Each structure stands twice: as C-alpha cells, then as structure tokens.
Amino acid sequence: MNEEALIRWACPKDLKAVIALCKEHAAYEQVSYDSNNKEFLLTNHLFQPTASLKCLVVEQEDTIIGYATFMKQFSTWDAVFYIYLDCLYLKEKARGQQIGLKIMNEIKGFAKTQNIDIIQWQTPTFNHQAISFYERLGAIKKSKERFFWMV
C-alpha cells in the first residue's frame, strides 16, 4: 500500500463498504452475518442528530479498508461513563501498519473530549493477533462470558 491511511468519521456513502467489512469481520470471528436492511438501520443509528453510535472508517487509495464503531455507556459499578468499542476491524492487508493504533488513539481522543477515562471492548479468545495488539496498548483483560437473550 502506497498512500497513507486516512482515518475519518463515516458518512452515508461509506455504509455499503462498512457493511461489507462487517460481513468480513463476522466471518473472521466465525459467526454468521445477515446484511439485510443494515444500510437503513445503520443510517438511522449513525446519522441522526441524537445518534449515540459513532463510526470511524479507514480509507486508503479511495477504498474503505477498516472501521471502528463505539458508543458512550454507563458502568453502575464504577459510577462513571465509559466508551464501549463495539467493533474494530481492518482488512488483512492493512494490519501491522500502525493503523489499529491510530484508530485506538482517535477513539481515545474522542473519549477525552467527553471527559471519559475508560474504553472497554471484547474479542474472541481465539483472536490471538488482536489480543496481542491490545496487550501492547497496555489494556487490561477482564474475564467474562457474553450472553445473548433474544426478545
């Protein structure tokens, strides 16, 4: 890759690429992904004046090669708000170029503008590459099981 990666806020024209990356991300994490109606739903959750979901994209050579989504949440135990990093994904060819670090620093900068001191996220236990990256950041592991209860 020749051109430096640009990290910027997502805009509506990016959604098709973000959805394609979501599908790729799901396959990487060994889960299924249904892209049906996602463009409409993401538009509503990202681009409304009161939207709580934030999305950064990584663009290189006019192509979206990665994304991160996050939101402000509250911890009752800590009695503070934190940023929850829902997704961070880079195409394989974009890994190992410090782009993940740049995205994390962008999210950290956003957290500071919100007077938030904590960012939390999760990754599958088999994602050793991501775990190694997060450990190099100085992140601390928290062991929990994640549950889903369909309503």
Describe the structure.
The chain has a single domain (6-137), classed as Gcn5-related N-acetyltransferase (GNAT) (Aminopeptidase). It starts with 5 loop residues before the first strand and ends in a 14-residue tail after the last helix. It is an alpha+beta fold. The radius of gyration is 15 Å and the shape is globular. The relative contact order is 0.15. It contains four helices and five strands; from the N terminus they run βααβββαβα. The longest helix has 15 residues, at 99-113. Helices cover 32% and strands 25% of the residues. It has a five-stranded mixed β-sheet with strand order 1-2-3-4-5, sandwiched between helices.
Summarize this structure as a short list of keywords or feature phrases.
five-stranded mixed β-sheet; 151 residues; alpha+beta; single chain; 4 helices; 5 strands; Aminopeptidase
Please describe the topology of this protein.
Layout: E1 6-9, H1 15-28, H2 38-46, E2 54-60, E3 63-75, E4 80-90, H3 99-113, E5 119-120, H4 128-137
Parallel strand pairs: 4-5
Antiparallel strand pairs: 1-2, 2-3, 3-4
